[in-house]
């Protein structure tokens, strides 16, 4: 083969320089800063957002308070010895010989007062975070994971696979979410994991639809074809090339719907279908004291038994929403139609 | 090129890809869906160490060809044999393994690199997929590859968006090289790049070829790119080869009329170059309904005149254009020149002579047409048009002016050593057509 062929000679363009491949002679880096990933960039952006940071601080504080409210023992070993809550949330104080009656107004000894069974509301609110928050996070993690895989498969394979999977989704969407959760709890009985299951069963559908739409867009990119040309398997293509490029809206959606789940849990609690009645879960606490909103003993209204658990729910959900919005801005995620339905429970 | 007596590494036979088009469910049920003939029976061979250039306008099936070679698109029919093994029949696992030998370089270096992966991961991915190297060895191989394509190993930790187009294309090349392939299909490897960078990339490809003994199939819409890099060239038109042969032969007469037109569009470096550009009439026809006979006949400047006709080639071309336009359209608007500044005029009201002028203006026909018989036919057709008898005009023209090119689909005729042209002009059945003088 002639050695001349293939080399282009254009005057003004020094081909020999390229032949000796002088390293990067005429190349300039487009940016000279160190490399940083997209999440690092997003985090920097997020930190500049004051309301989102406020939300983040509140959630962190609430989580820590819930965590350190009472000691945690696992199999007889105390793994978390701290006890921020002054009293056991379930303890009926006068039964322990303390000079406390039901519906005591907030005082130094009981900053949030006591409830109808003379339990310390402050301790209960702190401790109650454990239920609401953990259910919120667990449900969102599980639903997002299920939705991600389901939507990814539907979107990536398309065709009849997609058709079938999406019709199943339509079925789930046809049920009013909270009602379905209600039915599940009614059938399975009250309890922590029953609640998780009830919210998971309906929550994943929104994520699945959202991620499917994203993946339909992303899979058209040439780098997906490039991976195929390299001989990558479908699993690798989906989880290394498609999903990472489609996941931003899912993260936004997940952060926004933690609040929604917490409200849903509280709502079931308020309807008496959440946890057992004496639990310190925020919604259940509201339910236990709901008569008092109208008329307390002696004509006075013991506002503290409703305001503090209600306030805790409000504060947490609002903070989560601030965080979600912050993440959304930071990732510049596009909110599609599906997002609106994503977190419905 | 001194081709050895080697057997081809890649042998493509009758490769065909039809797409369903407009396929709503109802259309399919009613049998109304149409097929886009993106690729229609393409044969080619690629020999070890050679570069086969494939050129054509956009929409001629180049990318479909490139992708169905690698089974990235499933071809409708035909075989692709790599060292004797048919890729179209290979199992998924076998195909994945074979991808180590046949690689692909994409046109758009911006879209073909995953923005979420570092350059090191992009180039290292094929190593992971095929378990070629791990850990230290992988890192070493990645920096080797980056050096090979003229990048620095420092770049391994950066993201694609930090690089220029040319640099990104180098990353794409490094990725393709990672599996140590035998054949690389380059789909317009430089068309997205600046001209100066184009030369760098093409030179890099040439260097890599001699260094690693690669065989290339280079797709391009630009003959000048192919002229420099290819040993052989195939000219694709509407999913079929119009001409294929060694580069020097394709760039010299005898030409396929289409290749000749493409070649005439390449500017010469000589500043005194005046240009003899051949302009093709009409648009590229839709592959949905490709023209009968020779697919180029709707635009071919040399379209053959029927036996017994002898008129100036340009007039003949114009008459063909008019006939084709009449066939595809059904209003006077389609066959008359547009009058500046006049909108919504009622063409039916035009006088016979005004209509005459306007039609001649649209198709560049002289008055009268040099050939007496042709002038008469034209007159008759115009009478019909004036009477609003569109159908009749169509028939008159179609009957009188029918080129053999419309009826016969030319095979690839041998015109020289390994040089083949799909044009009836080179068929012995039309030994001395008037076109050669026209
Ligand atoms: S066969 Fe006829 S129409 Fe086709 S290229 Fe040859 S001369 Fe032109």
Automatic annotation (TrEMBL), chain A:
**Boundaries of each ABC transmembrane type-1 domain copy?**
129-324
Q: Which residues cross the membrane?
A: 54-79, 131-156, 168-189, 195-211, 242-275, 301-323
Its membrane topology:
Multi-pass membrane protein
What's in the keyword line of the UniProt record? Cell membrane, Membrane, Transmembrane, Transmembrane helix, Transport
Locations listed in the record: Cell membrane
Cross-referenced Gene3D superfamilies, in alphabetical order?
A: MetI-like
SUPFAM superfamilies, per database record: MetI-like
Q: Known InterPro entries for this protein?
A: BP-dependent_transpt_permease (IPR050366), MetI-like (IPR000515), MetI-like_sf (IPR035906), OppC_N (IPR025966)
Q: Identify its protein family.
A: Belongs to the binding-protein-dependent transport system permease family.
What's this protein's name? Oligopeptide transport system permease OppC
* Origin species: Haloarcula vallismortis ATCC 29715
TrEMBL record, chain B:
| Pfam families on file | ABC_tran, oligo_HPY
Alphabetically list the UniProt keywords.
ATP-binding, Nucleotide-binding, Transport
InterPro entries from the entry?
Answer: AAA+_ATPase (IPR003593), ABC_transp_ATP-bind (IPR050319), ABC_transporter-like_ATP-bd (IPR003439), ABC_transporter-like_CS (IPR017871), Oligopep_ABC_C (IPR013563), P-loop_NTPase (IPR027417)
The ABC transporter domain sits at 10-263
A Gene Ontology biological process noted in the UniProt record is:
peptide transport
Q: What terms describe the molecular function in GO for this protein?
A: ATP binding; ATP hydrolysis activity
Fetch the CDD domains from UniProt: ABC_NikE_OppD_transporters (cd03257)
Gene3D superfamilies xrefs: P-loop containing nucleotide triphosphate hydrolases
What family does the database annotate?
Answer: Belongs to the ABC transporter superfamily.
Q: What is the protein named?
A: Oligopeptide ABC transporter ATP-binding protein
